[in-house]
Amino acid sequence: MLTSHTLLCLLGVVATLTNALGSSPPFPRILHERRMAPPLGWHPLRRADPDTILPLSIALRQSNIHHLDDYLFDVADPDSPNYGRWWTPEQIIGTFQPSLESSETVREWLFHEGIDAHRVDLSKDRAYLRVNVSVSEAERLLATSYYVYQHEDGSEEVGCHHGYHLPEHVVEHVDLVTPTVHFEKVRLHAHAGRRKRSAAAASDYSWQMRRPQGVSATKPSMVYAHAENCDKMATIDCFRALYNFYPKLTQTHRNTVGVVETTGNDLNGNDLDIFLKKFSPAAVGAQLPTFVGIDTDDKPDFGETDPNLISEADLDFELMIGLLGKEQKVTLYDIGQSGSFNFLLDAFDASYCSFEGGDDPEIDGVVPNEDCGDKPRSNVISISFVGGEDLPPAYMQRQCTEFGKLSMMGITFLVASGDDGVASNGDNLCLAANGTPVPGPGAFLPNFPATCPYVTAVGATQVDPGKSVHDPESAPTAFGSGGGFSNVFPRPSFQERLVQRYLAQLGRHAVDPTLFNSSGRGIPDVAANGFPTAAVIAGNYSIVGGTSASTPIFAAIVAAVNDARLALGKSPVGPINPAIYSILFTGAFHDVTNGTNPGCGTNGFPALAGWDPVTGLGTPNFPQLLLQFLALP
Ligand SMILES: *[C@@H]1O[C@H](CO)[C@@H](O)[C@H](O)[C@H]1NC(C)=O
Ligand SMILES: *[C@@H]1O[C@H](CO)[C@@H](O)[C@H](O)[C@H]1NC(C)=O
Ligand SMILES: *[C@@H]1O[C@H](CO)[C@@H](O)[C@H](O)[C@H]1NC(C)=O
Ligand SMILES: *[C@@H]1O[C@H](CO)[C@@H](O)[C@H](O)[C@H]1NC(C)=O
User: Fold this and answer.
1) Other residues' Cβ atoms within 10 Å of the Cβ of residue 156
2) Which residues fall in a coiled-coil region (predicted)?
3) Annotated catalytic, 548?
4) Atom 4 of ligand 2 has which residue's CA nearest to it?
């Protein structure tokens, strides 16, 4: 079987050479992208029919993208005179639009290979080339062989997981080509990379669990509303006391903050009311969130009572509104059922839109009448769902770049670091020696987009049993606070000092250095209490938890910082990482130095003095954080 495939493949290449030699010699090719193996759950079924038509999309490299870090630090580095002078959308588009040279180079190559110019379609903003080709044409262009792959659920895909090739002179003009190695076509709630965090049950939640869900109900008589027993039930008052968070908001009419959810995951308005009455009486009467549907006709349903659907959104909005009060409107971004962040990014930035930017129809699906740059942005955006960093690197890099571009407009993205310690969130995968994600043991697999350096990754903490809000918090024991080092994104300069310090200390502890990539970006950046969180779900007082709770808590704190800056006529804080890692912010966090984040059959990393890949810089000390951010231009 395998032999005959190989043979077919070789014959195909020979035929190509003969054809091409008839006109002009083919360009030498180099490998552009490949996978070590098909993604988990997929296997090759048969060679693709040579006559099948493939909608080939070629994402052109953006101009100046190698300067993104320089541009970003110019406005986000607290030492820069331009701090806080965020870019306009026009500046972003003008700077990063792919060059004419890139589109022409790719066009000429296609023409050289016998693809008539009239078949090739260039998007308005020159970011994407599309051409319908037969499988045999695609195999020739990309020096690959296409297969039909089948998923365990029966669905089929055409792709070439073992890689594709581009001419040397074309490589530098192309980010990625689809359909090729990017499988994981969006399937409802099934994709290994984009799982929603579920609120977790206190009783049966442990780091080994793959898909924690459900909640444990608590008798109302056992509910503590004040900053006491925060080891047993963490409430709004606990967070206020822990982080000294008593903001006086004055700019709620113009400050903005949002939470991302997938379709159907709306909060229940009644739950919110019960929660606020009990845990944040001053916020009673808060309005329901402003619903912004992205690529969905969904109407918000704030009456849904299925705990599986509402637990995440209930938790997110109860915490955020409970902390920010009734004056601050909060936006709910519903990004549809696919859970692809690209739709959110598209909705903010038209230049990134489907067929004009970073979307990969193979991963994101194709959406008719997609929302492009027409949705209101928020100064702070909280994202509580993540998945393993096991999508093709070029895809993650392009999406991360987009987070970077949007953050340069002054948006702070806060992303949960995951709840499975050093393994991937939700499905607990680790990396086999050949780089394939597998159930552990294996090398550590951190979560994307938390590993993107342009977002702020949020880990979790707990008040230890028998301790109070006056004692230092620890890493949670009910689950592992997601953390580790990226295998895709190198360590950004803002982390250099503190991550090096951690690695030097780690020398004395037992973490097998072959299990993680110490040159990668470290996560999380910060942490906040994530267990055992009080919530009201489907009318019941419940104990839930996870970095799902930590993320909206931290997002509320950043929103309050923005409120105070706006009051002084300053800009929102945007991408905060360069600032918070600087020496200026040393006192702005409570260092967490106790606990680990187990996963992949190991204890994970230890929390140590200073930054660590369990709790990042630590939990916020709001007055100090505010003071430092108010001191910046
Ligand atoms: C490719 O074919 C599809 C379906 O026939 C069509 O809608 C699309 O416009 C074609 N694209 C190009 C670039 O010709
Ligand atoms: C809420 O409480 C009711 C009554 O005690 C129970 O039947 C239901 O299962 C609980 N829901 C959850 C999500 O625990
Ligand atoms: C380690 O991370 C770097 C990015 O920092 C990456 O280029 C490299 O491929 C990674 N190595 C492995 C073995 O994953
Ligand atoms: C460290 O954390 C454990 C729980 O993981 C807790 O029992 C212990 O009291 C903590 N120790 C200190 C010194 O905080």
Assistant:
1) 12
2) none
3) yes
4) 540
